[in-house]
Amino acid sequence: MSGFVLLLKIAFVAYVVKIGENMAVGRVITVFEVKCRNNPGFIYQKVGETYMCLYWSTTGNNFSNAQLDCEGKGARLAVVNTPEKRNLLAGKSDTWIGLDDRQIEGRYMWHDGTELTDSQRTDFFCYGQPDNWNDAEDCLHASIYCSAPHNINDGNCETINKYLCEKVK
């Protein structure tokens, strides 16, 4: 084997090892996974039967600034529209997600453009929520005071919470 070919093989193995940190041997690596892992702070995580590219903020922000920060990272506030996705938030501090009714009171829109369904409303919210307390709660967050999967609460958009961003394919 020539020195060049050996060097090329070593470089390829080093590259695969670098992008393959914490991955099972023999698993196919997708382009989405490589792109996700090449973004500082993002993690590639299996959620149910799918994978998500997630960024967990380490500091808090109000809802609008959290949304802007996610967009600046080429992402959006996370659409946690399944029980498996909401379970990601179990035990976390209050965390903004991509759901609000800022446009029309009572019409909750996910940040992927879909509307909250009746079954999601029943299955997702903390007991007695959403309540639009004091006519000032239009932004949604996972609450530490409720148990997943019923852990979503409406809150004042100016409250400082951590937030979860997701990149989409």
* Main sheet attributes: strand count, strand direction, barrel closure: 8 strands, mixed
Q: How much of the sequence is in beta strands? A: 15-25%
Order of helices and strands: HHEEHEHEEHEEE
- Give the tally of β-strands: 8
Low-pLDDT windows of residues: 4-22
Number of distinct helices: 5
- Rg over C-alpha atoms, rounded to the nearest angstrom: 19 Å
Keywords: Signal
Signal peptide: 1-19
Protein name: Collectin-12-like
Domain C-type lectin: 53-166
Give the secondary structure arrangement, pairings included.
Layout: H1 3-19, H2 31-37, E1 42-47, E2 50-56, H3 63-72, E3 76-77, H4 83-87, E4 95-100, E5 109-110, H5 118-124, E6 139-142, E7 152-155, E8 162-167
Parallel strand pairs: 4-8
Antiparallel strand pairs: 1-2, 2-8, 3-8, 4-5, 4-6, 6-7
Give the gist of this structure.
Keywords: Signal. The chain has 169 residues and is of the alpha+beta class.
Walkthrough of the structure:
- InterPro entries: C-type_lectin-like, C-type_lectin-like/link_sf, C-type_lectin/snaclec_domain, CTDL_fold.
- Residues 53-166 form the C-type lectin domain.
- This protein is an alpha+beta fold and 169 residues long.
- Strand 1 (42-47) and strand 2 form a beta hairpin.
- The chain has helices at residues 3-19, 31-37, 63-72, 83-87, 118-124; strands at 42-47, 50-56, 76-77, 95-100, 109-110, 139-142, 152-155, 162-167.
- Strands 1, 2, 3, 4, 5, 6, 7 and 8 form an 8-stranded mixed β-sheet that branches.
- It contains 5 helices and 8 strands.
- The chain is globular and about 75 Å long.
- The longest helix is centred in the first third of the chain and has 17 residues, at 3-19.
- Helices cover 27% and strands 22% of the residues.
